[in-house]
Amino acid sequence: MSDVTQIVIRELPTDNLRADHFETRTAAMPTIEDGQLLVRTILMSLDAANRAWMQGATYREAVKPGDVMHTYSIGEVVESKADGFSPGDIVAGEGGWATHTVMKARAVARISDYRPLTHHMSLLGIAGKTAYHGLMHIGEPKAGETVVVSAAAGSVGIFVGQIAKAVGARAVGIAGGAEKCAWLVDELGFDAAVDYKSPTFFKDLQAACPGGIDVYFDNVGGKILEAAMFLSNLKARIVCCGAVSQYDTAEMTSPKGVPGLIVVKRLKMQGFIVMDFGDQDAAALADLSNWYNSGQIKVVEDVLEGLDAAPAGLVGLLKGENRGKRMVRVAPDPS
Amino acid sequence: MSDVTQIVIRELPTDNLRADHFETRTAAMPTIEDGQLLVRTILMSLDAANRAWMQGATYREAVKPGDVMHTYSIGEVVESKADGFSPGDIVAGEGGWATHTVMKARAVARISDYRPLTHHMSLLGIAGKTAYHGLMHIGEPKAGETVVVSAAAGSVGIFVGQIAKAVGARAVGIAGGAEKCAWLVDELGFDAAVDYKSPTFFKDLQAACPGGIDVYFDNVGGKILEAAMFLSNLKARIVCCGAVSQYDTAEMTSPKGVPGLIVVKRLKMQGFIVMDFGDQDAAALADLSNWYNSGQIKVVEDVLEGLDAAPAGLVGLLKGENRGKRMVRVAPDPS
């Protein structure tokens, strides 16, 4: 069998991630054991959480130098030593930055016949389900309430704002730069968007939320979380989804007012991962599909071409250059 | 009518509270208007929250120099201009550090015939209900889980640990000093207690919670909250009841790991005040009474004698010198 191309971690970053923290190598095609699948990578997800994996153990083990960089990917089974899987099956699971990876059959999910395949990374994938479950089950927005989401132009943020609108709430996005903010309002229908890079960010956010904040969906942590807590109404809900401001740095910033503001305003802050609500995935996918089909939710994807695009693509994602779900196409869809 | 004795705020503290931030004065007996009651003070509650009121608006308006110091008190109606209230009625409500105060009839609660009156400040009062509602409705301890409570020897803490035991959980207290810690275990039946003043505090807490922390009832914030978050299990619940470490100081300390640990461990942190669960007071009082009558819960009270004891009593409470519910007896119970 031919060789496989892999991108490995050359050195762990201590501060900002750079593309040269990775290097490309060629290796012999892996062989599989009982219960395993050899999978040809089609799409690889790029996520801020990838950077957190380099800081140490999170909800999964840490990655280390010499490892093929981990990722969530969709691919085609080319060889199976597991019952129920055959070459040609399309599966999703924990893969690596590589043209081919080995997956455990019991840890993969089958991908339905719904196409395009990219939607299984966005609308119907982890991004869409994370937005849905976090907002609906922890944020619990009521019609007329104000929902604020940070990293609003990102993979999860675009859905949070649009779902908020779909259930009758006001959606306010926080993003970097005037252009992105205008895009959130003009293209995705957010009621307002605020540039966190502006020197008047706090006042801008306050002005965008004249009735205060009822639900804050936090993807970033740090000073933006702090601002949202100060502007929260009594009994506001803070959905703790990520802390991207804390991933690509050696400097951690804790928001002031913890636990003081939580006590005084009787706030709820709650973290989650998408699997916590796996028993409600069917309802999530049904709602998301319906809103998409009715035009209430737009899908925005940022697909980079070729395995080699991954390192710079992740660096750029951490700088916020993407709009919507960023992924890498390693190979064309099977015909 | 005779004069009234009042203790007023002479100057707001900027750092540690001292007794000389207050001064005593004599004033003319207040007159009341329609809807008001003149109440002779019997018992005044001393609470860490009193100090927070001096930092600015909390769940109630701030207090300011020249104000009679606010308090929650129990007293006897001596004059009524409100329907349904007569001299001799025993009521509880927002009063002041004074022999007599004016209360709005619609803002007071009638005290039942249950005696001793002091229990309406502890077991059946705000302390007991705060412990019960916070632990049961936010902490939701399951049998066999580990519940940790800070300020464990304080008015709320003693009940949190004992309620945890009553529902089959393991109770670990955090308190200041070896003597208090021994008392929590020997007298109140906590499974373990840890001295936060010890240089090995973190390791001690870790050793006292070999299975990690499932519920942390936080009365203090700061570094102790931080330690508890680091030792929390996945999906642990943190009951944000108070932040006494942050009240009597100009220096605020935010715990590290917010929101990182909340995300990674999928923690829930939630603030509350006792009134949030007012619709479940009856169940709380029934359970608390039953546990008291069966000997599962002991009541510990720290009753200081005389109005003049209030300033030093509050200063001492902030230093942690009390065990159980601290209050001031201003006048004997009516016979």
TrEMBL record, chains A, B:
Signal peptide: none annotated. It comes from the Bacteria. It holds the Pfam family ADH_N_2. The keyword Metal-binding does not apply. Residues 15-328 form the Enoyl reductase (ER) domain. Keywords: Oxidoreductase. The keyword Oxidoreductase applies. This is NADP-dependent oxidoreductase. The lineage of its organism: Bacteria, Pseudomonadati, Pseudomonadota, Alphaproteobacteria, Sneathiellales.
